[in-house]
Amino acid sequence: MPRKRQPRIEKVDNDSVLDQIERVVRWDSEFRLAFIKCNHPAQQETLRHSLLDRLRDQHILEISLEKSIISLLDEIRPHWNPNQAPVAVCVYGLENSLREQSQNSPVLGRLNHERDLLRQSIPAALLIWLPDFALDYVARGAPDFWAWRSGVYEFQTDSGLWKTESIAAFGNHNATSLASLAWADKEKEIARLEELLRTSQALAKQDKQVKKTNVRLLNQLGLLYKNLGRQDKALDSYQKSLKLAQNIGDRAGEGATLNNLSALYHARGDYDTALRYLQESLAIRRAIGDQAGEGTTLNNLSALYHARGDYDTALRYLQESLVIQRAIGDQAGEGTTLNNLSQIYQTRRDYDTALRYLQESLAIKQAIGDRAGLCIALFNIGHSYWEKKDHQQAFICWKEASRIAKEIGLSQALMNLEQLAKQLGGSGLEDWEQLSQQAGAGAVE
Amino acid sequence: MAQDQDIARVYRQCDPATPLKPGDPRYVPCENTRGEGDLIAQLTNAIRWSETPLHLLFSGHRGGGKSTELLRLQKNLAEPPVDDEKFFVVYFEADQEDIDVNDVDFPDLLLAIIRQVSKALRERVHEELRPTWLSRFIGDLKRFLGSEVEFETLELDAQIAKFTATIKSSPDARLEIRKALEPNVSNLIQAANDLFDEASIRLKDKGYRNLVLIVDNLDRIVLRDLEGGITTHERLFLNRGSQLHALRCHIVYTLPISMVYSPSATALMNVFGRDPAVLPMVKIANRDGNDNQDGMEALRKIISKRLTAASVTQWTSAFDSLEAWNYLCRMSGGHLRNLLILIRSACTAAGNLPLTQRVIEQAVRGISNDFERALNHPDFFKTLRDIDKTRELPGSKDDQMLLYNLSVLEYLNGEVWYVVNPAVKALEKFKSPRRVSRSRHN
Residues B144, B176: contact at Cβ < 8 Å? Predict the structure, then answer.
């Protein structure tokens, strides 16, 4: 869990931090290294403009690093003109090179022994802007470079601004859109959410609104981790989320977390624990009138009964769920429910009904861009066709499902598809292309 | 406006990133307050008086003035008083061009040494060495780099540079090259020694007493556990110690401070035949925690010299009270680089001289916060509290890491003792673990 920093005894306001950075730039002309902490991208833009405005009589070089880099020196050198040497070099985005590998990022090792070369090549103020978590990585991963700093200048995050950002971030983040992100974007999103979480936890004022936000952040992190197959991290996030939600009496957050937690236990085959969590979740969601949540939980309950072979109960929950979802216009939920309905008919060998529900589900998922759902629907449609002996159609669906699953890194689907490919005589996921061609040739004969 | 100029000059004189060159007027000899006599004079004499090659280990906290002192050693040996013989000193920073501090093993270092010696001979005294076995061996090695590299026209050191550059930049190639070097290590040592012998003969012709090698920055090797229960530091200095010891010229190796106080210290002593020379902190406090007046005086002198260099002639122009000045010295823990970082932070926070107690406290909070970033494990604070109580290392697995990241400083005065860096002690987490952990789950 990211550490919470002790609150400073004396808050330094951002204007005086700008004063200090301005002094670093104006007072010297040799190499000097300073770190600037800024956790919030939009705020960083504002502060950056203020600083450049204060220094408009000075030549400042700005380096924005969008992609992961290995050597900071290599990035600066091409822009360094000794005849028109700047007094300061501002570096933004170095955290993009740190996220995935934390303090063992290669760029840190390089910084550690590039420091002499940097000092010799860049007689200027090197101002490296980083969010809090990345500063930790530099301090641990590049201790010698870090040791040369002339100072660390920390901007306070404007908490009003932060809330706006977080709300904007959540606006387009429901479970469906998170699950449909591409693999690398999920990793990025995890880093971003972790960062938001840390910022939020470091806010001096931890009112209920902020803590509720923390619950949601933890929940979303859990979901992403689960999607990427990192069950331990997912469990950890959910448990923290649950504890916090219970402490502050955030019922909606508690209901959501319980629902998500159940999925982990379901996946492990611990149906009793999963069921307990789902029932708790359902009770809470009904009590507070969270209909969308209720629909989701009913859906998961049905999946549990389905897994245990109790199809009648499963069907009842699904029909309840479908009624709610259609009433409140929850299309994403409806798509999932239709998919789950199909599976009951599939099990009962009524492939035509199964296919009908699946096509309906597919249409909805296509319309709302739910790629994770699309992948699952295709996988299931493939099975229905296979059972109906239309092998060519089945292969086309599975091939498409495997393409999407790879793209978004859907670990459960990838596992299933790999297993299936092996059962069909291939050696793994990479064989879907070939397998479907063979099926195509077979159909012509 | 004039005030503003003063503080900017003070800021400029306190650069934490650049070691002082020998003869810099800002240099303050601290040997008496460090508690070990003049280490550099001792090392100079040891080398001057020895007929056989010496392998000396030199250690100290990073940023404690090691490089400044080693540059003094170089000057002492290379430019002695008129009636003494001069040495040909090759000083190099191991991590600069040749070595990846994240992963270094003896063969890499040996290649780097051979390269640096032959380069210095060629560039400084125009002696081109082309030992036959070594040239042939390097020729064989080039297969590992593919045939497109053109070697024939290159000098020996330039040829080796191809390998060291590859070793440093490409972990895959590094393994390949090491695999090729390993069975030949003893031959390679023999070849290096032949090279040193020949160099020594040619250097005598040019009026030098002999060759001395100073390998700086080996203490920067990243501390990491390796397979087989040893660390990266132990791999080089212990497992390879006898090989480091087998080279036939005077060599000063920098040693990570954590090795000096690790359980392997005795083994190290057995290999090298002598204890490492350790450059301690400036002792600003006695074992009982009270100020050590000599040490405090030395730090004030270091600051005074820098003020003078900044044309600020009265300390009263720089500090609004003696208490504030003393507080600054005390909170540095006698660690010179931290002292300079504190001054710079206080300067930018203040904007004007004199620096007040308030603004120095602000700088200290900043540096405390910086330390906290590296202390990411709750166990660290437990160990730190132990050390604070006993003034000794508890022998925990964290000891080496805490010395490595400077949260623990060590002092000498006949006996050794340890203190927690004052900036770390100032952290809330250090003081009251319970209160902090409770407020975490709010």
Answer: yes
Q: Which residues of B touch A147 (CB under 8 A)?
A: 16, 62-63, 337
Residue spans per domain, chain B: 1-34+280-442, 37-279
3-state secondary structure B231-258: EHHHHHHHHCHHHHHCCCCEEEEEECHH
Q: Say whether residue B13 is in contact with chain A using an 8 A CB cutoff.
A: no
Q: Which residues pair with residue A63 across a beta bridge?
A: A91
Q: List the domain boundaries for chain A.
A: 14-156, 159-249
Predicted-complex ipTM score? 0.75
First to last CA, chain B: 49
State the pTM of this model: 0.62
CA dist., res. B416 & res. B410, Å (int): 7
Phi, psi of B411 (to 5 degrees): -125, 155
* Topology (CATH level 3) of domain A14-156: Rossmann fold (3.40.50)
**Among B12, B220, B365, whose Cβ lies nearest the Cβ of A28?**
B12
Per the CB < 8 A criterion, the answer to whether B419 and B391 are in contact is yes
Q: Starting at the edge strand that comes first in sequence, how are the strands of the sheet with B250-255 ordered? A: B86-93, B208-216, B250-255, B55-60, B277-279
| Residue range B333-358, pLDDT digits in tens | 888 889 999 999 999 999 988 999 99
Mutate to test the interface with A, among B306, B356, B370 (most CBs of A within 10 A): B370
Determine the distance in angstroms separating the CA of B219 from the nearest CA of chain A, rounded to an integer: 10
pLDDT at B73: 92
Q: Which helix (H) or strand (E) holds B86?
A: strand B86-93
Is the pLDDT assigned to residue A16 strictly greater than 70?
yes
